[in-house]
Specification:
This is Zinc finger MYM-type protein 1-like isoform X3. Pfam families: DUF4371. InterPro entries: DUF4371, RNaseH-like_sf. The structure is a single chain. This protein is of the alpha/beta class. It has three domains: 89 residues, no CATH class; 108 residues, Nucleotidyltransferase, domain 5 (2-Layer Sandwich); 216 residues, no CATH class. The protein is built from 18 helices and five strands. A five-stranded mixed beta sheet has the order 3-2-1-4-5, covered by helices on one side. The mean pLDDT is 85.
């Protein structure tokens, strides 16, 4: 039956017509050749337009820049960086120039420059990047998870999830460790149980096995690092090989927070530094007086979480105390008649800077912050591993212990050099003794008070500060050692 059909006249005629149509399509000689040509031309034009829009989107995304402005229309003021780059490109590129001409005339139904296409392009690119990250993580097999919680501008608590793994995707033999942000996940509760559930659900969604997890990295919050019901404990119960390493930078912030609250002298020091910044930064004229006296460094605002700002502030006063002293004198004289309150504050700070105990505490704190800042910076480097981390923490502890034994004398010598610049006597002032209630018969007597102001300062400030810092560092350096 099939052979009869193949040999029929009707089949042969249809076959010849199909062959002829195929040849005509190849050489562009069909009856609708002009329409086909227009379709191909339009397809090419739209491909070129979308290619340019995608590269603009990629550029803005790579540089973490906002896309939209207050207007969503072309050639209107404040229409955002996306439309602005489209308009800029149209000045030099014929494809975009023609596209915008047609869009402004209304010859195209959609110019593909609106907010919807922007969001769609971002989403498509994001899914492509995410797919590549997951592919590499699966190829590597083993990975670590890094998570942190924070609230956004709309007060929605969000969990950020990052994967860390050995990247084996390159063709060469070079092995590299990569960290890739995965996504933000809105969470209603920040308890250890809920966050653990969210992390496991996200890993399951992307086909990543929790049993292949070999590390956890979180901050030092109780809901994350809690040894009984924290996230790290709950994940360890499921996978004992997922070793928990706390965030090094956050840990050292806590070390310095503990040290800053160890004595009244430390609290006073940072209070004075904040008062200096507030006094000069409240007025452009006052700031000008300060910068006219300062050289390389300028005072910084203190931060409760970013201790790098504190070392910058301490460093500026430590190395330019005489210049800041002169700036305060100038400010006090200039505002003596115009603003008595500012003049009084400047005069009070002058007296504070000339206090020898303040100068010694400034030197001591700079030495400690400088050493810890080196460790903190190193812990943030891309090539840091547990071996290097443990070694650096060990050296930091040795430095603090040696400084505990010999640092006070060297700080006194340095402080005396600064007092010479201020032309003051390097003498510890005796503090007024707090009056105690007289003890009754049978009560245990107090220890004899320390009468030497220098010895009292060493015991109550220097030793207390170093002991607190050493204990805090020792407590936090055990975690990497246990992981090894």
């Amino acid at each position: 039956m099939l052979k009869i059909h193949e040999n029929s006249t009707f089949h042969k005629k249809c076959y010849l017509s199909w062959i002829e149509a195929e040849l005509r399509l190849k050489i562009g000689k069909t009856i609708d050749c002009q329409e086909q040509h227009l379709i191909r031309k339009e397809t090419t034009r739209w491909n070129n337009v979308l290619s340019r829009l995608m590269h603009i989107t990629l550029y803005l995304a790579e540089n973490n820049m906002a896309f939209r402005g207050t207007s969503d229309k072309l050639y209107t003021p404040n229409n955002g960086k996306f439309l602005g780059l489209v308009q800029l490109l149209a000045k030099f590129d014929l494809v975009m120039q023609e596209h915008l001409r047609l869009a402004m005339k209304g010859d195209v139904s959609d110019h593909y420059c609106g907010k919807d296409i922007q969001n769609e392009l971002i989403e498509l690119m994001g899914e492509k990047v995410k797919s590549e990250i997951i592919s590499r993580a699966k190829k590597s097999k083993y990975c670590s998870i890094i998570a942190d919680c924070t609230s956004d501008i709309s007060h929605v608590e969000q969990l950020s999830l990052t994967l860390r793994f050995v990247d084996l995707s390159d063709d060469n033999e070079k092995i590299s460790v990569k960290e890739h942000f995965l996504e933000f996940i809105p969470v209603n509760e920040s308890t250890g149980e809920r966050l653990t559930e969210v992390i496991i659900n996200v890993l399951n969604k992307y086909g990543l096995e929790l049993n292949d997890c070999r590390g956890q990295g979180y901050d030092n919050g109780a809901n994350m690092k809690g040894k009984n019901i924290g996230v790290q404990r709950r994940i360890l119960d499921i996978n004992p090989l997922a070793v928990y390493i706390p965030c090094g930078c956050h840990s050292y912030n806590l070390v310095l927070c503990d040290a800053a609250k160890s004595s009244v002298v430390s609290v006073t020091l940072f209070g004075v530094l904040q008062r200096l910044f507030t006094l000069f930064s409240d007025s452009v004229h006052r700031w000008k007086i300060l910068t006219d006296h300062l050289g390389l460094y300028t005072i910084k605002k203190l931060s409760d979480t970013r201790w790098e700002a504190r070392i910058s502030s301490v460093k500026a006063v430590r190395y330019q105390i005489s210049a800041i002293h002169d700036a305060l004198i100038t400010l006090a004289i200039e505002t003596q008649k115009t603003d008595v309150q500012v003049s009084h504050e400047a005069t009070t700070l002058v007296e504070q800077l000339k206090d020898f105990s303040f100068i010694v505490s400034l030197v001591v704190w700079y030495d400690i912050l400088f050493q810890i800042n080196i460790v903190s910076k190193s812990l943030q480097s891309t090539d840091m591993d547990l071996g290097k981390c443990t070694e650096m923490l060990k050296k930091c502890c040795h430095f603090l212990e040696d400084y505990r034994n010999t640092g006070f004398k060297s700080a006194i010598l340095t402080a005396k050099e600064l007092t010479a610049e201020l032309e003051i006597e390097p003498v510890f002032q005796a503090r007024r003794r707090i009056r105690h209630v007289k003890r009754q018969v049978g009560e245990i007597a107090r220890d004899d008070p320390i009468t030497s102001p220098e010895k009292k300062f060493e015991v109550e400030f220097f030793n207390c500060l170093l002991d607190t810092t050493i204990n805090s560092v020792n407590e936090r350096k055990t975690r990497p050692r246990q992981a090894l």
